[in-house]
Amino acid sequence: MSNSADRTAATCERRAPVMLNGANVMESFRENLFDAANRAGVTVNEFCLQAAAEKLIASGRSFSGVFNAGDIKRAG
Asked: Which of 6, 13, 37, 55 is 20 to 30 A removed from 64 (C-alpha atoms)?
């Protein structure tokens, strides 16, 4: 798609809830996760979703954004 087509598709895309359930992790991982999210100025859920988005992009997936259309930076 061209850039203008990307923008048009992105503006028509609706928000969708993601229901994340609790998980048990090792204490040291939890401490580091909360510290990293705090340093980034976001919630742990936002931090995890951003990390998942980066992994999806690295695997070749395509989507308009996580929280807002266009909020994911793509390499290249």
From this structure: 37
